[in-house]
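pasting for ref. prot 1 ->
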Amino acid sequence: MKKLLAPSILSSDFMNLESEIRMLEKAGADWVHCDVMDGHFVPNLTFGPPIIKQLRKITDLPLDVHLMITNPEETLNQYIDAGADWLSFHIEATKHSKALLRYIQGKNVKSGIVIKPKTPVNAIRDLLPDCDYVLIMSVEPGFGGQSYMDSANDKITRLVELKKELKLNFLIQIDGGIGLDNIEAVSKMGAEVFVAGSAVFGAKNSVKTIQEMKKKINI
């Protein structure tokens, strides 16, 4: 399958968000990654359903919503109603992961589980049959611009093994410190969806950077 690039608007210019989305469309980005932070589960505070609802009105690109929030079950419906196409939450943030994954799918939205750098893949093994995708955090969640943590490599490899062993089709997504210098190597390990924020929006030529990234992951 074709591998996907999902630029994170966390690093975009929020005063010109529509033009940033148009740039992503022009460049051939596959998804728009939306980092939702509540100031509680992670220190930072970003945006919520109203922004996602506005994004839904201006683009047909799939909206990939990553919830870095405590008790996601309390507000899940708001993100579904706002227009999320792919919706992921942290296993560390709730005791109801399996039920939430199935609930999201029941709303015709793709569901995903996220693990922080210190959480082992084995913690989500039993959830994999209910996942459309698994997001491996290769930085500590909460802030953009961090460096890639090599500990994510073993997790990617392990998930590739589990996909084969369990005969599952979930996508492996990676988020944190992804750039032109490492995206090809991470792709060869087995990652299939790549979140990139500062490497895209902080580039001198964001369109060219996106296109180069897409070439590197689909060699």
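and prot 2 ->
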Amino acid sequence: MQTLADIGEDALIRRLVAGLTFDAGVIAGPGDDCAVVRAPGAGEVLLLKTDVVVEGVHFTAATPASLIGRKAMARVISDFAAMAATPRYALITLLAPPQTTVKRVVGIYTGLRRLAAEFGVNIVGGETSRAEQLSISVSLSGVARKGAYLGRGGGKPGDKLLVTGRLGGSIRGKHLRFQPRLDEARWLARRFAIHAIMDISDGLGKDLSRLCEASGLGFDVAMESLPRTRGCDVAQAWGDGEDYELLFAVAPKVEQRLLREWRKAFPKLELTCIGQLTGQRQGAKRNGGWDHFQ
């Protein structure tokens, strides 16, 4: 009998969402960093996202409680950054073994609240339940101006591919302390035509392939150009995952101006051109990166 390990995460998701139908209120369903639906207010759309961290997968029993909560909130805010949207309201679901200490749970919520406050997110409710494994799920809603949010699917052949920050080595601590690139994404959206964008959560090798698939394109990357965390090699920058940096595509004619203006706006954060999109879809095969079931 076929198992999840046989098909992997992406194939599973394709199978689960196949045949889904939506009413007129759904603008974009599965396939991007957030779902997009019509908002009650004129001129806005509503974005929805849920994410989960699980002990033994995203953190360990030794991870400080506040950093668990911080990571749980930061991951979903990073998805809003990938669409240049504004996160607003969060629901928290806590699953925990009964023997979990109250102090640990309070510490987790301290981390959740601190990062939520930093980004203007209101925690408005949630749920708790008994489970064999400690898990925290964050469901987040937010808004963007109609037609102003970004997505993965608009890349064009010849577009330049750029990434923020440095990649690889997240297990050394970055995966617990990364900063969602929300301000940077909004800055990009206001000043430049960003054809395709996403955050790098499962490794550049896998997430670049997803961006290319959404755009119906391939890629050509100069591997030695990858910006690497100190002590990391190219393979780690390509496949370690949990970098939570932005990966995006722009027209070649704006690349140099974008790089100049970026250095002025964000002098402490690198921005690197790593290659370009191509019309050859075979270049977009997945190799490297994280898969929950493989």
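Helices lie at 4-17, 65-81, 102-118, 174-177, 182-191, 204-215, 234-239, 255-265.
The two ends are 16 Å apart (CA to CA).
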